[in-house]
Automatic annotation (TrEMBL):
It comes from Cercophora scortea. Gene3D superfamilies: Aspartate Aminotransferase, domain 1, Type I PLP-dependent aspartate aminotransferase-like (Major domain). Coiled coil: none annotated. Keywords: Transferase. GO terms for molecular function: pyridoxal phosphate binding; transferase activity. Signal peptide: none annotated. The keyword rRNA-binding does not apply. It holds the Pfam family Aminotran_1_2. InterPro entries: Aminotransferase_I/II_large, PyrdxlP-dep_Trfase, PyrdxlP-dep_Trfase_major, PyrdxlP-dep_Trfase_small. Residues 51-388 form the Aminotransferase class I/classII large domain. This is Pyridoxal phosphate-dependent transferase.
């Protein structure tokens, strides 16, 4: 029997029921009542009381798929726009990614994955028998940087897919539009599929940097985007994710794989999803999420300044987490802590849950991520309380 490797991120979180959980990545969740209040006055609620609870459409409801096609379409003529036929609805983005990954690669294939990233994105292809090469984000002075020259050097004759996570989990890095267009130029030369996990879209925190478009909107035929309501919109209890792709053959393969896992997504969930993504409601949810994360980033900035001898970071340009490096006491701003031991001690001493990134996100033993911890920024009050505990742990060693 072939066992897939341990999913350290989830086993770490589930094994430590923190009283102050900062180990997640979603914005503070909305209740159904709160979601309804974000709609214009007089709007019917998100749950249709007359809904017949039969199986739904195998691909997802037409209304929801049409709205997602609209959100992923480019500006311009109608013939360039995507349609409901380009969209598959899944039970969350984790299923969207699993179906897409298992449909794209197999034994003998080569896969390039932005790194670090959500472990599913490189572990599943490897479990399928593919060779995976990391396209590493490098820490710059003010941002995490991805080298296109380095990426070109990773491409092989059997490279099938390049995957990005934009905005990136855990670093908060954002690849700009110029990089996305360069990726298309490179992929076009080698007939490579470009895959963008956009589960944190549209959480972009820089007020001055242009927001990159959904990858699939850029027109490259061999491209797909995945996403969900969970992270950026604060609706993780609504188990709806999606795959948006241009290639009919790829969509057919994914649909066939989906038949083995999902008859249909809950119609209740799809109804709430359509409500949340509607033109009248979506901008208000996004504004709420950006406000929460913006205030959390300000809290973290103050925390880093107060503890500059022990803490380093690059403020997140996007996503729902901050990536913070903890240094040993008395190291003169040099040696990183053992992040697994540090996060474990923080939990035991304070009840604060943070993610040790070197342990949970690193592929191999190269220790590039040693000392880094991931901290959720989606709940300002919880973060404020958690940072107090984290400072106590820093002072105690």
């Amino acid at each position: 029997m072939k066992d897939i490797q341990e999913f350290r991120l989830d086993t770490w979180i589930e094994g430590r029921q923190a009283t102050i959980p900062l180990h997640g990545s979603a914005v503070s969740p909305l209740s159904l009542a709160e979601l309804h209040k974000l709609a214009p006055e007089g709007t019917p609620g998100p749950v249709d009381q007359d809904l017949v609870l039969s199986y739904g459409d195998a691909q997802g409801t037409l209304k929801l798929r049409e709205r997602l096609a609209e959100l992923h379409s480019p500006d311009g003529p109608e013939e360039a726009k995507l349609t409901a036929a380009n969209v598959i609805i899944t039970p969350g983005s984790i299923m969207a990614n699993y179906l897409a990954l298992t449909s794209l690669v197999g034994p003998g294939d080569h896969f390039i994955c932005q790194y670090p990233t959500f472990p599913q994105l490189w572990v599943v292809p490897r479990f399928q028998g593919a060779e995976v090469s990391p396209w590493r984000l490098r820490r710059g002075e003010t941002s995490w940087e991805a080298s296109l020259d380095e990426l070109r050097g990773l491409v092989k004759e059997n490279t099938k897919v390049i995957i990005i996570n934009n905005p990136n989990n855990p670093t908060g890095a954002v690849l700009p539009s110029s990089t996305l267009h360069s990726l298309i130029s490179l992929a076009s030369e080698h007939n490579i599929t470009l895959y963008s996990d956009e589960v944190f879209r549209p959480l972009f925190h820089s007020p001055t940097s242009p927001i990159p478009p959904p990858f699939v909107s850029l027109g490259y035929a061999n491209s797909l985007s995945t996403g969900s309501l969970s992270k950026a919109l604060g609706l993780p209890g609504v188990r709806v994710g999606w795959i948006v792709a241009r290639d009919p053959a790829l969509l057919a393969r994914i649909t066939n794989a989906r038949y083995y896992t999902t008859i249909s997504v809950s119609q209740l969930d799809e109804g709430v999803a359509a409500f949340a993504l509607s033109p009248a409601v979506l901008p208000r949810i996004v504004a709420r999420s950006l406000d929460i994360c913006g205030r959390s980033i300000a809290l973290l900035r103050d925390f880093v300044e107060r503890n500059g001898d022990r803490v380093q970071w690059i403020a997140p340009a996007g996503a729902g987490t901050a990536f913070v490096r903890i240094l040993e006491a008395g190291s003169g701003g040099g040696a990183p802590v053992d992040d697994r031991a540090f996060a474990g001690r923080v939990f035991e001493e304070t009840g604060v849950g943070i993610v040790p990134a070197g342990y949970c996100f690193e592929d191999g033993e190269d220790e590039e991520l040693k000392g880094y911890v991931r901290i959720a920024i989606g709940n300002e009050e919880r973060l404020r309380e958690g940072l107090e505990g984290l400072e106590k742990a820093l002072r105690s060693g």
